[in-house]
Amino acid sequence: KAGVTQTPRYLIKTRGQQVTLSCSPISGHRSVSWYQQTPGQGLQFLFEYFSETQRNKGNFPGRFSGRQFSNSRSEMNVSTLELGDSALYLCASSRGLSYGYTFGSGTRLTVV
Amino acid sequence: DQQVKQNSPSLSVQEGRISILNCDYTNSMFDYFLWYKKYPAEGPTFLISISSIKDKNEDGRFTVFLNKSAKHLSLHIVPSQPGDSAVYFCAATSQVAGAQKLVFGQGTRLTINP
User: Fold this and answer.
1) CA torsion, ordered A69, B97, A40, B18, to nearest 10 deg
2) B15, B80 Cβ separation under 8 angstroms
3) Sign of the C-alpha dihedral computed for residues B58, B63, B67 and B71 taken in this order
4) How far is CA A60 from each of CA A22, A56, A65, B5, B56, rounded to the nearest angstrom?
5) Contact predicate B36/B21, CB 8 Å
6) Do residues B52 and B32 make contact, with C-beta atoms less than 8 angstroms apart?
7) A84, A54, A83, A80: which is closest to A66 by C-alpha?
């Protein structure tokens, strides 16, 4: 059974650029969440999508956005990149809370 | 404002003994709790969860205890094995609020010594 797939695994971008990260959830999972992990702030919730609708959003600036497609695949976009956006971005999918959220291996974004 | 706290950044336990990882929370709205294990360069792996209507949940070597009055939960691993060496995160959410957002603690690095 395939897990949550995130692409690319590593990315280096320059300040001011924008970036798009992709997440393919486990087949049948309709909920997709995104998290940012940094050494200082830990794992922080970005947003969650279900059936192409954003149901919840964390405390991040509007430069961070996302979307979900009809096949449940999701993308997140960060515009006008800042050095502080360097982090591991994790995607998770779920078929229900009692089953937990299954995380992908993440995309390591470095902003220089 | 850290709503979920893991006050021990690290823990070292001898193989075969019990590992106890602790987590405290402040938000009374939290009613579902999860534990994750994370290896370097991988995403967190779900271990076990507990609803606030219970005070204990077991799954093999893993047991989670919840003390609602103290707003405290703990993860017990018995017996500890070398493969358990990883960073452990507790997370909390509110089913009333939709349960889409997990709030994570800062993590505890567990090292199992042979």
Assistant:
1) -110
2) yes
3) negative
4) 19, 12, 9, 21, 35
5) no
6) yes
7) A54
- Write the single-letter amino acid at B25: Y
Lowest mean pLDDT among A3-17, A80-94, B52-66, B85-99: B85-99
| Confidence grade of residue A99 (pLDDT, cut at 50, 70, 90) | confident
Q: Which residues of B touch A105 (CB under 8 A)?
A: 41-43
CA–CA dist A109, A33 (Å, integer): 17
Of A44, A48, A105, the CB nearest to B100: A48
Q: A with B: how many residue pairs have Cβ under 8 Å apart?
A: 60
* Residue pair A22/A73 in contact by the 8 Å Cβ criterion: yes
Chain B residues whose CB is inside 8 A of the A45 CB are: 101-103
Residue A89 contacts residue A81 (beta carbons within 8 Å): no
Q: In terms of CA atoms, which chain A residue is nearest residue B43?
A: A105
Q: Which helix (H) or strand (E) holds A43?
A: strand A42-50
Phi then psi dihedrals of residue A83, to 5 deg: -55, -35
Written as six digits, the tokens of A19 are 């970036």
State whether B106 and A4 contact (CB < 8 Å): no
Cα A23 from Cα A37, distance rounded (Å):
16
Environment class of A101 (CB within 10 Å of its CB; exposed 0-12, middle 13-18, buried 19+): buried
* pLDDT above 70: residue B30: yes
pLDDT band per the 50, 70, 90 thresholds, residue B2: confident
